[in-house]
Amino acid sequence: MGGEDKDDMKGVKGKVTMDMASIDIVEKLHSKKGIFMLKRRKLFEFMGAAALMYSGAGHSKELSTKPFRHYPFDPVTAENFQQKLFIPGTSGPFGVLDVTGPLKIRATAASFSILPGRESPFLLYQTEQAGKSYQNPILRIESGARFTASLDNELLEPTIIHWHGLHTPAAMDGHPASTIAPGARFDYDFKVRNRGGTYWYHTHAHGLTARQAYQGLASFFLVDDEDQCSLAKAMDLRLGETDLPLVIQDKQFDAQGKLLYQPNAQESMMGWLGDIVLANLTPNAVQTVTQRTYRLRILNGSNSRIYRLAFVKGNTPLSFTVIGTDGGLIERPEKVVGAFVAPGERLDVLFDAGQGQPGTDILLKSLAFDAMENEGPASSMPGMPDMGQSTSRLAMGAEFNILKLSVIAGVRLVAKLPTRLSQVKPIRLEGATPRNIKLSLKNMNFLINGRTFSMDEIAFDVKQGAVEIWSISNPKVGMPHPMHLHGFSFQVIERLNSPPQVSALARFGKGRTVSDLGWKDTVLVWPGETVRIAIDFAHDFPGSQTYLFHCHNLEHEDAGMMINFRVQA
Fold first, then answer.
1. Which pLDDT tens digit goes with each residue over 499-528?
2. Do β-strands 285-289 and 320-325 pair in parallel, antiparallel, or remain unpaired?
């Protein structure tokens, strides 16, 4: 960051430096992963159809009761939360960069200090503007503006950027077919057609997405419009002060404090879990707040972990107000006490810290829930190979803390929340074309309509300007899948056969929860559930356009739970 910000980064965020040692470490991790992926594919071929009955593929609950291995950052114990939350500034890591002209972005290897006094190799997006240096900048731009950027690949492997949630021509979307080799450049040039909202960008190199994103290649892409400005004015919200982008991630570290990503066969199939929970790259984060309303733009940037979010004082859940989801503001503010957020999803909330008196601690937690992952010992099926256990000490569905809000003395400020935030015009469903999307598990691979990803294969065509209703069905044998659509936003119109922990939150008609409101690009589909979404495939791009539909559990994506669809002109 700038000179005035460096002290705030000390211990938790540290410095970002380029050096050959960190590049060498990253390269070693890369080569090990390549070897592992080859062995994993052979394992799947060997295991065959019997995998449908395998009950040992879940994340281990047993490990969650064991002590943490190398560091005092276990997120279950609230007393551990003493590290100052990193707040994005005007430069440096996660610096807010107002896009006013072309950018030159470099994907590079670097070292980054997360655990105090220890450096970890990372992969980062770096750029400079107006004499300031940025790492993984939070890009902020006006709706309707032109975005122009070049990506230079300074890694030792292929990469590409996907603009998650943005409506762009297919050539600008960051499809893995656009992946560039080390030393190559890719030029982006498109109009930002989206309404105001909290979007993001991340790597999308096929087979490398999970590790590259885990090692750091991701950040926010904030779009402003009149509705966003009106809300900020009404609620006295200032980005970086009372309006806080908050990316939540879970990671593992080795004994030296270096970032660890070495999935075994089970973790490659089910998804990698960390056991240190980071809020804005801060472990055990704490933020002081006064008795006023704060905006938190929450992004689940984890590889596979689902969060059941709640603000808790003592043992009492407190209300918070959802104002937006993936594609910007919803129509009306909705007050709730909990919500699920899956990988890739965003939840834009207002929280009134005045619900606590000065001296009170309020915890943003992930509450316990049923992970629905068909867990059990591998030995339950004779002859099945041992796939190993999850190496995380924090099981999927366990309860833990994410961020501590410590209320301090200050003027009690109560702003009047507008009753209407924006207009979300429902997609007209008359004459819409139905399409069934079936998720399945076969030979230890998760599939979409029986397919695994092939770079040049088109799973189906849709007509430009058509409206379709997709019914996405997830079998009971399997696990939850956060399904992400490229190129277009959609509206959730119905949930069917939801598990009790989801239907208990369904206050918004036709089984929908607060996370389903507004415009979406990612939706969580639980085992046994069908989610119906409406998509308007209208666009003004010339010719046919090919986009992706995939699971945003990043290990699933890399393993091929992804298909191409083509919008025909």
1. 999 999 999 999 999 999 999 999 999 999
2. unpaired
